[in-house]
């Protein structure tokens, strides 16, 4: 250890070299990084797997608004990596950036889990939050922190893992990146399988409901584990100090070229071959040539966001589509979302070793042609989704428009009745109901058998059930299970751990999971068990008539009226569109990254990585624009619209690719390396030392102060 100062020379210099601990030739530190990445990806994809369902069923947002917020969040997750890369390379370094932003990330996940606890604002203990504004505010805060954290560390973790290897460990470094990518897919696969199942569990202090706190809490715990594991490995890490961000340097170079060209826009200045050549006064030709090559590839990125606009709707529109289909939603959703990582792991080697070689025997299947095919497959996936949606729509009930309301009448009297609603005669059997809902505008006049007239006001866009009790009295309920009590006394009904009491009136609709549901009906002395098979998406009204009596055959007195039929199109049909989309992703995304790296200069890899992530963000913004601008009532029409836009973009990209000329960045850089000494001499007069700078002081001092300057340099290095 040498203590150097200008006044004294070092007497003793000891150099300690600590060889990093290795296992099978790999630094031990990378195992902490791989585990960290697995836990982080589990946390992110697990939370995202149920996010739109949380928006719709907990926060009570409609599907369009839930889709908007979902894609805004995803876009933010892919915008923040640029910020994280600049912070890491320019100021904090990769290690500190990962630690600080992981703390932000973990806090965001915890806030999301807390926001999903309905009991924190459920003062009346009815299972519904009383202060939804607080839950929304916590959710938005949590999502913002998550987007900042996951995006900020995204460009740092893989690069930090690469920093752990020495120059002679090129083979081990390459294997590390393969393991690193495997950990990403493993975390995604397991989390998307487990989290929907966790959501399907019931929890709650007062009322047992779908357990969103558990679905968000487990990913939050995994993020805390990821942070702890990463910090534990800190003594073993090789930490490179910040050396400046190439993205900032490229932007400055482009900015200088634009400003210099603008200053010399007069015709008296000779034109240059390329507009970037106007940066030659300040930057060397090698950097300018590298920027040109990077811009050439980035220009091809312009049409690519449209692919991601379709791809990321797997987590929004396609998830909502699954809720209108038949099947165990918890297991089906998890199995559907795990199709993507499973197919990726299968298709990547199949494409590389079998499909691409076979196609190449017929014609030259270049990377740009592969990307074009990938976009076309994604468009086909949305055509498949549209065709499936048409089949689903045929089985769904015809809900009222925003200017209409629908009504179903139920006869609670043990004899047939005839009533009139706006001069339309309706026959009702004893303890029966009309089969289809009737449509009215705002209000209608109901005439009972006794001649009594009742003006019924209805909210537009709603479905209502009107019960006729004792021939003249009315009971009304808005809008998945409704219970009518005509018994004449207070009854206690329990179904799937949900308990409610009501008198001679209607209950609120209850959301009950599918399958065979048992209803325990009690009064002060006796009980009765009624069983009803509930299909996915079905809605029933259960009638407890005035003739109801407790006893062995009590359940035979209870009548069930079907309000909505169960979903009949099975979720398995979604496998087709998932397969097409994942195949398109493999052909598009993997090839796109491979092409970008092969065409990028050696020091511009991060620039293209930032550009690639930016296309994902812009793609999600496109979803927001199209969803808001295109006022399409039918979901299948929106799917066709997105497919058509992607086909149009696909044709545009094919034309751009036709005129693209492949380059070899290594050869170009080698040519400019030979010219570098001449370039330094050429710019010597342009980059004159400023007055008061280190160089001017050195010239003033002359050679007599050279030894002192050497000491300063040594001290800086140490």
From TrEMBL:
Transmembrane segments annotated in the record for this chain: 12-36, 71-92, 98-117, 138-160, 180-199, 211-232, 293-311, 342-359, 371-392, 575-595, 607-627, 639-660
GO MF, any single term: symporter activity
UniProt record, GO biological process: oligopeptide transport; protein transport
Reactions catalysed: L-leucyl-L-leucine(out) + H(+)(out) = L-leucyl-L-leucine(in) + H(+)(in); glycyl-sarcosine(out) + H(+)(out) = glycyl-sarcosine(in) + H(+)(in); L-alanyl-L-leucyl-L-alanine(out) + H(+)(out) = L-alanyl-L-leucyl-L-alanine(in) + H(+)(in); L-phenylalanyl-L-leucine(out) + H(+)(out) = L-phenylalanyl-L-leucine(in) + H(+)(in)
Alphabetized InterPro entries for the sequence: MFS_trans_sf (IPR036259), POT_fam (IPR000109), PTR2_symporter_CS (IPR018456)
GO CC term (a single one): apical plasma membrane
Keyword Cell membrane on entry: yes
Extent of Basic and acidic residues compositional bias: 673-703
Keyword presence, Transport: yes
Subcellular location, record wording: Apical cell membrane; Cell membrane; Membrane
Record region (Disordered): 673-718
Keyword vocabulary terms for this entry: Cell membrane, Glycoprotein, Membrane, Peptide transport, Protein transport, Symport, Transmembrane, Transmembrane helix, Transport
Protein's membrane topology: Multi-pass membrane protein
Protein task: Electrogenic proton-coupled amino-acid transporter that transports oligopeptides of 2 to 4 amino acids with a preference for dipeptides. Transports neutral and monovalently charged peptides with a proton to peptide stoichiometry of 1:1 or 2:1. Primarily responsible for the absorption of dietary di- and tripeptides from the small intestinal lumen. Mediates transepithelial transport of muramyl and N-formylated bacterial dipeptides contributing to recognition of pathogenic bacteria by the mucosal immune system.
Annotated family: Belongs to the major facilitator superfamily. Proton-dependent oligopeptide transporter (POT/PTR) (TC 2.A.17) family.
Name of the protein in question: Solute carrier family 15 member 1
Native organism: Neolamprologus brichardi (Fairy cichlid)
């Amino acid at each position: 250890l040498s203590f150097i100062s200008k006044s004294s020379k070092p007497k003793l210099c000891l150099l300690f070299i600590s060889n990093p601990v290795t296992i099978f030739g790999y630094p031990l530190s990378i195992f902490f990084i791989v585990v960290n990445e697995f836990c982080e990806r589990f946390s992110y994809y697990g939370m995202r797997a149920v996010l739109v369902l949380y928006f719709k069923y907990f926060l009570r947002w409609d599907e369009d608004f839930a889709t908007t917020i979902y894609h805004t969040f995803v876009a933010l997750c892919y915008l923040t990596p640029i910020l994280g890369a600049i912070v890491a390379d320019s100021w904090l370094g990769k290690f500190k950036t990962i630690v600080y932003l992981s703390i932000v990330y973990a806090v965001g996940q915890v806030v999301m889990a807390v926001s999903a606890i309905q009991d924190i604002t459920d003062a009346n203990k009815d299972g519904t939050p009383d202060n939804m504004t607080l839950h929304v505010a916590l959710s938005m805060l949590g999502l913002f922190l998550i987007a900042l954290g996951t995006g900020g560390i995204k460009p740092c973790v893989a690069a930090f893992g690469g920093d752990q290897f020495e120059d002679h460990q090129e083979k081990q470094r390459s294997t590390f990146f393969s393991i690193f990518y495997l950990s990403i897919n493993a975390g995604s696969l397991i989390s998307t399988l487990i989290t929907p199942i966790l959501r399907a569990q019931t929890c709650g202090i007062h009322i047992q409901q779908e357990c969103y706190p558990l679905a968000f809490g487990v990913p939050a715990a995994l993020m805390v584990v990821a942070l702890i594991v990463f910090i534990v490995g800190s003594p073993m890490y090789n930490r490179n100090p910040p050396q400046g961000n190439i993205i900032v340097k490229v932007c400055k170079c482009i900015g200088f070229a634009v400003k210099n060209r603008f200053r010399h826009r007069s015709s008296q200045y000779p034109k240059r071959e390329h507009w970037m050549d106007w940066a030659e006064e300040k930057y060397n030709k090698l950097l300018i040539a590298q920027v040109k090559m990077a811009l050439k590839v980035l220009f091809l990125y312009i049409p690519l966001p449209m692919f991601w606009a379709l791809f990321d709707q797997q987590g929004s529109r396609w998830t909502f589509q699954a809720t209108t289909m038949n099947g165990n939603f918890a297991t089906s959703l998890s199995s559907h979302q795990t199709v993507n990582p499973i197919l990726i792991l299968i298709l990547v080697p199949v494409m590389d070793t079998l499909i691409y070689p076979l196609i190449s025997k017929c014609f030259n299947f270049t990377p740009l042609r592969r990307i074009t095919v990938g976009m076309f497959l994604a468009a086909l996936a949305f055509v498949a989704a549209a065709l499936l949606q048409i089949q689903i729509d045929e089985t769904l009930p015809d809900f009222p428009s925003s200017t209409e309301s629908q009504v179903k009448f139920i006869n609670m009297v043990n004899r047939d009745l005839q009533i009139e609603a706006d001069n339309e005669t309706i026959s009702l059997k004893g303890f029966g109901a009309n089969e289809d809902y009737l449509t009215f505008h705002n209000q209608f006049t109901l005439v009972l058998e006794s001649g009594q007239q009742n003006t019924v006001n209805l909210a537009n866009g709603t479905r209502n059930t009107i019960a006729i009790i004792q021939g003249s009295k009315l009971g009304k309920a808005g809008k998945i299970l409704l219970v009518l009590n005509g018994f004449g006394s207070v009854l206690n009904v329990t179904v799937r751990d949900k308990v409610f009491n009501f008198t001679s009136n209607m209950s609120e609709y209850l959301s009950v999971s599918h399958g065979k549901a048992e209803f325990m009906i009690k009064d002060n002395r006796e009980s009765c068990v009624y069983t009803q098979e509930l299909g996915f998406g079905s809605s029933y009204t259960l009638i407890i008539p005035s003739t109801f009596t407790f006893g062995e055959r009590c359940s035979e007195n209870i009548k069930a009226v079907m309000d909505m039929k169960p979903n009949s199109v099975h979720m398995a049909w979604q496998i087709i569109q998932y397969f097409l989309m994942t195949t398109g992703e493999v052909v598009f995304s993997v090839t796109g990254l491979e092409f970008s790296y092969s065409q990028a200069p050696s020091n511009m890899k991060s620039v293209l990585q930032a550009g690639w992530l930016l296309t994902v963000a812009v793609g999600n913004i496109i979803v927001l624009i199209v969803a808001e601008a295109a006022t399409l009532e039918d979901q299948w029409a929106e799917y066709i619209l997105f497919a058509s836009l992607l086909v149009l973009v696909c044709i545009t990209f094919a034309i751009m690719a036709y005129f693209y000329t492949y380059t070899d960045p290594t050869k170009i850089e080698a040519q400019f390396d030979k010219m570098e000494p001449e370039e330094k001499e050429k710019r010597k007069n342009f980059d004159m030392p400023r007055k008061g700078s280190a160089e001017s002081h050195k010239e003033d001092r002359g050679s007599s102060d050279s030894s002192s300057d050497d000491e300063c340099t040594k001290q800086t290095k140490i």
